[in-house]
Each structure stands twice: as C-alpha cells, then as structure tokens.
Amino acid sequence: MLFYKAWIETRARFVAGLIAAAIICIFYMEQHAWLVRMWTADMQNPHGYHMKWMPLGIHEYSWYLWHYLYNNYLQQVWALFAILFAFGGLVRERNGGTALFSLGLPVSRRRWLFTRLTVALLESIALSLFAVLVVVIGSAVIHQTYSLSQLLLHSALMVAAGVFIVALGNLCYTLFPGNYLSLILTLALLGAPYLWIQTYMQHMRYLGRTPWFRYLDLAHTMAGPWQLNWSTMPWLPLLVAWLLTAALFAATVAHGDRLDY
Questions:
Q1: Which of 53, 217, 226, 234 could bridge 66 with an S-S bond, Cβ 3.0-4.6 Å?
Q2: What is the number of structural domains in the chain?
Q3: Are the C-beta atoms of 99 and 90 separated by less than 8 Å?
C-alpha cells in the first residue's frame, strides 16, 4: 500500500513525463531526413559549415539519435522529471496537514522514505524504457534502424548515473519544503554546473583536452560514448556519481529522522 500511495501521488507527473519524452523522440526522428539534407548541402558548399561531427551525423543514424537524445534533449527531459518524481512523501503530507496519520501507522520514517525513493526510481526507469519503445517504433516508421542493445545500454547508463539527480531532488525537497521553492533550488544547484560543465567539456573534447573534473561531468557520464560497451563504459565517473548519491541519501535519512512533522 505504501508503493500504491506513492504512485497515486506522482502518476500525473509520470504521465506528463511520458508525453514529454515521446514528443522529444518523435520530433528528432522526424527531423532526421531534413537535417541530413542540410548538413550534406553544407559539406558540399565551400562556404558552408564544416563541423567535425557532420559526417557522422549524415551517415550514422545511431550517432544522430545518441547526440540529440541521450547526449542532449531526452537526457534533460528525463533529468527534470526524475527530480519531480523525487518530490513528495511525508514532507508533502506535512504541508497538507495529513502527516500525523501516516506517522501513526506502524511504519518507520525510513521505510516511508525508501518506499518513496524506490517508486521515483522505478518511474524513472519506466520513463527511459518508454523512450526506447518510441525510438524503436519511430525508427521503423522512417525506415531506419538503431541497435536495441545500444538503446538499452544507454538507457541503463542514463538511469545508473542519474540516480544522483533523484537523490539531490529528494534532499532539496526535504530541506526546503514546497514544490516551487524546492524545484527552483534543485535546478539552481544542479542545472548551472550541469549545463556549464557539459558545454565546457564539449569544447575541451574538440580541442583534444581532458581536464581532471571530467569525473564530475554528470551529463556526459549519463550519455556515455555513442558506441557503448564494457570497455567504453565511463566506470570511474559512474563510481563518483554513486558515491555522491550515497552521501545525499545518508544526509536525507539523517535530516528526515530529526524533522518535526
């Protein structure tokens, strides 16, 4: 019943996440043919744009989808809804005046917390798998193919590194109750370094440099390389993300045990 209660609380956000993910995936699959024609024309034009990645974008459909979905827009949509899934629980009930009833049940605060986080994680996994389904069907419609194993591997990596986002969202919601305040603070704490480091690391990679703080580049850890396998998996950045996630979970539990509902 705890799982069902958490699901009832977040189902509207979950459905909104499915719709947003579907829109992003369908849009960039639909744009593929037009963008390939535009890039091809640029490559043939001496005065056009000649970016290093253009041949890959033209000839490798898998690189194209990885670049626009897992390395950019689908990842960002997933991250936003992972934060939203983490909001709620006893803190929300306290704001609504119903927390005392829930606390009166023979369930510990920690069990409430871990149930809530488990549902948020399951919803995040389901959202990533739904995107896989949309890509598989959409690619077949436009007569393109994308390796199912690569789709599943990238989805697994996105979730495995993205648990940090779920943990940060839940901690911010516990520290700063209120949907709007928590969302703004979480986006400020995560969004600024997330986007800045992602942009800076893209520039460094073009220059052939690898700064030490690449291990904190959450966006590229979630994306991984476009051809993902055991040897190309970003194991060390993933370990850093897991250690930070464990620290955030511990802080949330410690604060939740002392919180006056």
A1: 226
A2: 1
A3: yes
Classify each residue of 190-209 as buried b or exposed e, where b means 16 or more C-beta atoms within 10 Å of its C-beta: beebbeebbeebeeeeeeee
Residue-level pLDDT at 117? 85
Question: CA angle, 10 as apex, 6 and 15 as ends, to 5°?
Answer: 140
| 10 within 8 A of 85, measured Cβ to Cβ | yes
Residue with tokens 């639909």: 30
Q: Smallest Cα–Cα separation from 179: which of 63, 4, 9? A: 9
* One-letter amino acid for residue 253 of the chain: V
Residue 239 makes CB contacts below 8 A (sequence gap 6+) with: none
Beta carbons of 2 and 112 less than 8 angstroms apart: yes
Domain span holding position 81: 2-258
According to DSSP H, which parts of 176-234 are helical? Answer: 179-206, 218-223
112: left (phi over 0), alpha (psi -120 to 50) or beta: alpha
* Secondary structure E strands in 126-195: none
State how far the Cα of 3 lies from the Cα of 6, in Å rounded to an integer: 5
Lowest-pLDDT choice from 16-20, 80-84, 150-154: 80-84
Q: Find out whether 121 and 166 touch, Cβ atoms under 8 Å.
A: yes
Position 92 pLDDT exceeds 90? no
Closest CA to 195 of 214, 168, 226, 219: 219
Compute the distance between CA of residue 193 and CA of residue 199 in angstroms, rounded to an integer: 10
Report the C-alpha gap between 164 and 252 in whole angstroms. Answer: 13
Q: Do 240 and 164 contact (CB within 8 A), yes or no?
A: no
Q: How confident is the model at residue 61 (pLDDT cuts 50, 70, 90)?
A: very high
